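Sequence in, structure out. Go.
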Amino acid sequence: MVDAVTATDPRDEPPNEPVNDPRTDPRGEPAPPPSLDVSGLAYAYPDGHQALFGVDLTVARGERVALLGPNGAGKTTLVLHLNGILTGGAGSVTVAGLRVDPSDRAALAEVRRRVGIVFQDPDDQLFMPTVREDVAFGPANTGLRGAELAARVHEALALVGMEEYADRPPHHLSFGQRRRVAVATVLAMRPEILVLDEPSSNLDPASRRELAGILRSLDVTVLMVTHDLPYALELCPRSVVLGEGVIAADGPTRDLLCDEALMRAHRLELPFGFDPRSVPPPHA
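Output:
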């Protein structure tokens, strides 16, 4: 005997709900890949020291993220993997959909264009007779010439407010100005992600404020490696704490800085009298 099937009126069925697919944007277009996707990254140096033990980190396009942690946590080792300076460990690094592969020289060159690293000491980055030549160095090495190269240099210097110093020798500039020029040398490559190593170090208060304004104005993903926790709170809505080669915490910067147990465990200390709850949240 066959059970009776009750017929239903299609009009009584609920309408199909739209599916929220993370691979598409609200218009249904394919979403761009994240600026940075690190998966299972582990690395040991030739002397046997294991610096990373399986790091997983995703940074979406346009985010500003602070990378925090004590000395020896693995921050520099992680950064040096982002553009293929260090390779050979386990796991993978992908930059805007392009995997870091040391065996593919063309892809590696493109990764290094996409990942712009600004060193802690701008004098490690500036070596040409004039500011203009320093900023032109990277694009010129990719083949840009003439008016196109000049326009790229002007664009990068304008982004950091240093156009009027184009013909000055870098060593005639203040430390804060040299840091802005160092940022311009990287912006001239039109990177996908800007990696800043201790950007506020050795800056006077005015230069610190000016650099913060520049970084907020840029239409680029930012990963900021810093021990300057108030600066991280000012600029980065999200922070990641690296400890002993793994991601120990990942969340809103304010929440992490208010977690006293987390801060103690990873030797992170706020300046005397500084209360992160008293600072307005940064704009994403």
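Check: The radius of gyration is 23 Å. The domain at 34-126+191-271 is CATH 3.40.50.300 (Rossmann fold).
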